[in-house]
Design goal:
The chain has helices spanning about 10-20, 25-45, 55-70, 75-105. It is mainly α.
């Protein structure tokens, strides 16, 4: 995700989460940058692009990433949210495993190693 890819709705949600009630192009651009950086970071941790528009762990982590970036506290973000990052990774691995198992079953390959 780049700054240009950040939807108006996601920007508004993040600004609401941060308590930003004013409209300012410079502030919007700075927040778009943090959203894009956070999405790149979290996509890397997850191993694939995440949906930050939908409620869930990825969106929660992105909101917190931006909050920490705004507060210049990125040095402690990963440590404070390690449990949620690991839960996101585990959930994705379980989903991938289930999808692979279902594909194998559909192809008649279940039980074949």
């Amino acid at each position: 995700m780049t700054r240009a890819d950040v939807s108006a709705a996601l920007l508004q949600d993040v600004e609401t989460r941060l308590g930003i009630t004013w409209s300012d192009p410079a502030t919007d651009d700075r927040i778009r940058g943090w959203i894009a950086a956070g999405a790149a970071y979290l996509d890397g941790k997850a191993g694939e692009a995440q949906d930050y528009e939908a409620d869930g762990a990825a969106r929660t982590l992105l909101m917190e990433y931006v909050r920490y970036a705004r507060d210049e506290a990125m040095d402690v973000f990963e440590n404070n949210y390690r449990h949620l990052i690991l839960a996101l990774q585990n959930d994705l691995e379980v989903t991938r495993y289930v999808e692979q198992t279902l594909q194998a079953d559909a192809c008649g390959l279940a039980g074949v190693q």
